[in-house]
Each structure stands twice: as C-alpha cells, then as structure tokens.
Write a structure and sequence with these properties.
The structure is a homodimer of 229-residue chains. The first copy, chain A, has 229 residues and is α+β, with helices and mostly antiparallel strands. The first copy, chain A, contains four helices and eleven strands. Chain A has a single domain (16-187, 203-227), classed as Pnp Oxidase, Chain A. Chain A has helices at residues 23-31, 83-89, 132-146, 159-163; strands at 19-20, 35-41, 60-70, 73-79, 93-106, 114-125, 127-128, 165-171, 174-180, 198-206, 210-211. In chain A, strands 1, 2, 3, 4, 5, 6, 7, 8, 9 and 10 form a ten-stranded antiparallel beta sheet that branches. The radius of gyration of chain A is 21 Å and the shape is globular. Chains A and B meet through strand 2, strand 3, strand 5, strand 6 and helix 3 of A and strand 2, strand 3, strand 5, strand 6 and helix 3 of B. Strand 11 of chain A pairs antiparallel with strand 10 of chain B, so a sheet runs across the interface.
Chain lengths: 229, 229
C-alpha cells in the first residue's frame, strides 16, 4: 500500500482499523467532496480580555471552504479582506478536513450505534499563489471540480477581481483517511436481542436547476449540468 | 433580534450581510445537522522536530463528531482513549462548526459563482460531564437527535461503557450563524451575457434501511425510522 504522507501526527491512535494512508483512497475521498473545514489559530488580538495571558493555548477557528484537489495539493480561495485567509496565506499551521456522512448505523446497543463516514485530514501550511496565471488556473480547477463544464460559459475574473482573491494551495504531504463502512458490529451477547439492526444510508443529491429571477437573455439550461452528481 | 452571544471574535468582518446572531437561527441550523467539525490545538508532543521552537503557532486538528443541541449547549462524545478528546475535556479553547451545503450558485461571472450554505461557528471551552446520570442523559439526547425513537430499543450503556466514554458539553455562549441563500447576484454589466444563471439545490437524503447481515432474531424495520429525514 502506498502511504500518503503518514506521520506521527496523522497516525491514528484510536480505532486504527479504520485508518488509511493509501494515497488513492485519500484522493477519492477528497474528489468526492465540495466543502472542507479548515482551521487556523487566532492571534492575540482575537483574545478576550478575561482570558489568561501568555500561557493560554491558542484559539482555533474552523470555517467551511469550497475546494478542489489538483494532483498532490488542494486548492481553495478566499477574500484578501479576511483576517483568517490572510493568516492561512501567511503560513500558519492548518488542518483541512473533509467528511462524507454515509449512513446511520443502528446497532443493538447504544454503545455500538454509530455512523458510516469517510474523512480525510490534511495537516500543513498553505502557500498563497502569486502570479495571475497561477491564480487563474487554480480558480478554474476549483470551478471545474464544483461545476464541471461551467468555466467556458462564465466571464473570467478581471485583474481587479483576481487581486481581491487569495488563492491558497495546501500540499497533501501529511494526511490520512478514516473510513467507517458496513453494518453494526455488535457485542455477541447482544445478538439475541429482538431488535432490528442495520444501516440507513445517507446520500447527497443535486436537485433540478432553479433559474435566476433576473435572467434577461433567454438561455437554455446548459447540458453539462445533467452530468453533475 | 435576539443576539446569541455575539462577541468581537464571532462578529464577521467579511460579507456582514450574511452574518446572523439570531439565537433561533443558530438553533435551527444546529438542529438540522448531524456532524460538526471540532478543532483543538495540538500539544508540544505532537510537533515535528523540524518545526521552530517556542514561537511556532499551535497546530490545530479538526475532526468530525456527531452531536445534538440541548438547550443552550451542544453535546458530543468520544473515547477516553483519544488524546484529542482528552484535550477538549481539559478545557482547551475549541471551535465547533456545523455547515449545510444547500446549493451551487451559477452566476454569469466566475467571481460571483458561489455556494448557498448555512453555517454555525461556536467558540468556547468544553466541559466533561462527570456523573453517570448526566452522561447517560446526554448520550440519550445525542441518540434521539440522530435516531429519534431508537433509544428505547437499544441496550443502554453499561457502567464500563459509560466509563470509557467522554461526554462533552460546549455552551452556546459565543456563536454566530452565516447564511447564503437565493440566486446569483451578478454585476449589472454581466446581466446581458447569454449565459444561463441560477441555482442547483443540494439536499441530503436518507435511503431505505439495509438490514444487518447478522440479524438472528426476526424483527421488523421499526416504524420510527419512517419519520427520519
């Protein structure tokens, strides 16, 4: 099995049977997602006056971001006006987590009741793309991941819009996947209970397109949308 | 509008029109979710030898957790064997974020293309519930949020199982909601483009139950599952 950057920090200590450092698995889980939860720690200016001083552990902030994987890195973007994105661009350590909830696992005991899911955690430091060409290519990659085929239809970013956009890349050097799948694994002593057990699968679906109220120029729903799922 | 613990830290600086501190809105978004992304910072033992020393900002870790809201707090649980959960139980500052992705927003420009979503961010410090009665009530609350009606059917936790479970409560003292909804808001100059614009709604659905392979005692699918959504 190929290892996608397993380190002491991403090697899971709990439920190790669920952990995976298989690079293809990490890529599949990332490619199946649209939103990641990204964390960065706050700076001193964000602390409450009532907090203890220097010894106080840093406050993390977690925000959702749209992203795409591009080879061995993930790309996402935010506003240059966001303090959090500027902190990420400055190279503060971050954690980038993507989770798919796949099902409710109904066991015979409360203790074994759980969820099926696939999750990837990436640790590292982002770098901000600097050239207009790099930024443009990254924004196209994110757009084409979320809305395949759309990029050719939209007005591309102006120089001013590009300048207002921080585009961040996070390498997939240090990452792991965690997957829980299948039915409940009950304690043998519970198997004789007259209780139904199984899984309720959960799925994310796209619904039919809703046209914008201000569509002035008649235009059909683009064909590429039909392939989205 | 009632304010659900707005502070300097949760007052959003970007896109303030999307921010809300309405307590009912925060509760609605939390109640519509199953999984939160929770962050805590690492400790020194987790740092790489190559990292700079004392000046190095802390490394955040973000993990998915199942949760329930109980009045003005959220409840979730983990293993006493998890270093991350022990750090949370120890009162390290945390951030608890819940996000619902509601749609892809197809604007005429790349810059205005976006996503509709609802998100809540809670800052604070967790406390671990200590008595068996409190822990049991919290586990029931989480179970009944995720699988309403199920608690009466399952074998309740034993004293040993309870002892192995860290049950955490995080008060909703400092939190905010961020909501993006509706159609694209294009630049007026882009409205004459012959480009379709609108929204592709995204929804999470539960699929029909899948029975466990090891169901020994014949039992019908419980009626309460039909109401889950």
């Amino acid at each position: 099995m190929e290892h996608a950057g397993s380190t002491e920090r991403t090697r899971l200590r709990r439920l190790p049977e669920k952990a995976s450092f298989d690079r293809a698995e990490v890529h599949r889980i990332l490619d199946a997602g649209r939103v990641a939860h990204v964390a960065v720690v706050g700076d001193r200016s964000g602390r409450r006056p009532t907090d203890p001083g220097l010894d106080d552990p840093a406050q993390p902030y977690v925000v959702p971001v749209a992203y795409a994987r591009d080879g061995d890195r993930v790309l996402f973007h935010g506003s240059t006006g966001s303090r959090l994105f500027r902190a990420l661009a400055g190279g503060l350590p971050t954690c980038f987590t993507v989770t798919h909830l796949d099902g409710l696992v109904l066991a015979r005991s409360a203790f074994e009741s759980s969820m099926n899911y696939r999750s990837v955690m990436v640790l590292g430091r982002c770098s901000a793309l600097t050239t207009a060409a790099d930024k443009l290519a990254a924004l196209e990659a994110v757009s084409e991941h979320l809305m395949p085929g759309r990029w050719a239809d939209v007005r591309p970013p102006t120089a001013k819009e590009l300048a207002a956009t921080l585009v961040l890349a996070l390498p997939l050097d240090e990452c792991s996947a965690k997957v829980s799948t299948g039915g409940p694994t009950d304690d043998p002593a519970d198997l004789d209970r007259p209780t139904w057990a199984g899984v309720i699968p959960i799925r994310t679906v796209l619904e039919p397109p809703v046209v914008a109220a201000d569509l002035r120029v008649p235009a059909p729903v683009p064909g590429y949308i039909e392939d989205w799922k």
